[in-house]
Automatic annotation (TrEMBL):
The lineage of its organism: Bacteria, Bacillati, Actinomycetota, Actinomycetes, Kitasatosporales. It comes from Streptomyces sp. R11. Na(+) binds at residues 94, 97. The keyword Cell membrane applies. This is Fluoride-specific ion channel FluC. The keyword Cell membrane applies. Keywords: Cell membrane, Ion channel, Ion transport, Membrane, Metal-binding, Sodium, Transmembrane, Transmembrane helix, Transport.
Length: 149
């Protein structure tokens, strides 16, 4: 007597596209929402030629702060549905924040003879965005801790 083939006893594996399709869909939908919001802000607050690109700066800083809040809530407060992080974090906030526009803004400033403004923007965005994540994370934890007391 021989042992049954263990492969035939396992449940059939779903193809990768079946398990990834909902994630790709929510990221795409969230990205469309975030990118539309970013575009609206850039229309409302256009950058002046040679001037500091304030709209993109604040979009990235606020978006990073929101990512900090989101990550604390969905990882430390309560488990979220498996599609929340891809939809909000990668989709909406990933579409809202923008590394590409940041890089293009710097290049345009440098190419138009405003290298100091470009370098200031480069450094200020990096420092402000990282600080925003750290402060938003700490503030969210503090607020949640107070609510539990």
């Amino acid at each position: 007597m021989t042992a049954p083939d263990t492969e035939s006893l396992r449940a059939p594996r779903q193809p990768a596209w079946r398990t990834q399709a909902p994630i790709v869909a929510v990221v795409a939908f969230g990205g469309a929402i975030g990118a539309t919001a970013r575009y609206a802000v850039s229309l409302w607050w256009p950058a002046q030629p040679g001037g500091f690109p304030w709209a993109t700066f604040w979009i990235n800083v606020v978006g990073c702060a929101m990512i900090g809040v989101l990550m604390v809530i969905i990882t430390e407060v309560r488990p979220a549905h498996r599609l929340v992080r891809p939809f909000v974090g990668t989709g909406v906030l990933g579409g809202f924040t923008t590394f590409s526009t940041y890089a293009v803004d710097i290049q345009q400033l440098v190419d138009s003879g405003h290298a100091r403004t470009g370098l200031a923007y480069l450094a200020a965005t990096l420092i402000a965005a990282l600080t925003a994540v750290r402060l938003a994370t700490a503030a969210t934890r503090r607020v949640l801790k107070r609510r539990q007391s």
